[in-house]
Amino acid sequence: MFEGLRSRLSGFVNKFVNKELTEENMKDVSKQLERLLIRDEVAVSVAEEISAGVRKSLVSEEIRRFSSPMERFTIALRSSLEDILTPKDDVPDLLQEIKAAKEMNEPYVILFLGINGTGKTTTLAKMANLMQEKDFSVVFAASDTYRAGSIQQLAKHAEKLNIRVIQHKYGSDPAAVAFDAINHALAKNVDVVLIDTAGRMQTNTNLMNELKKIKKIAEPNFTIFVGDGLAGNDVIKQAQDFDKFIGFDATILTKMDANVKGGAAISVASITKKPILYMGVGQSYSDIEPFVPLDIVENIISIENSN
Ligand code: GDP
Predict the structure, then answer these.
(1) Is 255 close to ligand 1, i.e. is its CB under 6 Å away?
(2) What is the CATH topology of the domain spanning 94-248?
(3) Does 145 sit in the ligand 1 pocket, CB within 6 Å?
(4) What pLDDT does residue 233 have?
(5) pTM, 2 dp
(6) Fold (topology level) of 3-88
(7) What residue's CA is closest to ligand 1, atom 22?
């Protein structure tokens, strides 16, 4: 999936093969590492953080006992990336939380945020499918009442998945749609309410006010930011803005099946300090996988293309 960072750095690191890997000697390697990370769309501040972590580990006693510089470098890089990608707090188990809510006869409400085109609606459908596989019933709230075609798009997924969509006319109040969907879930004992929302430019004040209102009325149990794994630095800005204005609990990164460089995952994790729960790996409903930080780290540093 990723072009191995290690392979791209190996020539450089190996130049130091016969040298002692002192902090001074490693400055050049870490500059080169920063450049490669930035080229892989890691945010500048995060690239600096990773390379500082690598430099620090390289001179530690623990790492000095390995004889090969490449080995030492890989261990240091792995540890620095792991530090960033592994959330400090426990990652919530959504399915477990839904089960607990169901036991209390309460619908579990999830609000989805994200810019148009990132794969938000597809992700909503994938999550619904995942929940149905666990025997939870789902209702959709078509709270993107702004973009032409958005309600039909959601309804198409709903039809395939045999899910009810609560919808109003285009231009109507999206918070009212969410409210109705929750009431529907309460009346019909539906386990999960998934709220689709509009996603024009995240800096749009009207959009942010609209989303704030939805959040206030729906009081979601969980809010998910959906970001495009291919969007590079844009996804970082989006995550920051949605978090600042609306607030969210976790991220899902889409399009991770494409030849992504991993920069989005590293940067979003580092900057938001929130877990990445799942990643989208294709266009079918089953193309969603739990995000496993260690797998991503191995992918980023592994030698996949050894030239
Ligand atoms: P929205 O505007 O954010 O609701 O985006 P959509 O859900 O309509 O998705 C936009 C496009 O991205 C569609 O063609 C989806 O099939 C595609 N897409 C969504 N998630 C993924 C993914 O994980 N991998 C790939 N390859 N395509 C995806």
Answers:
(1) yes
(2) Rossmann fold (3.40.50)
(3) no
(4) 80
(5) 0.90
(6) Four Helix Bundle (Hemerythrin (Met), subunit A) (1.20.120)
(7) 255
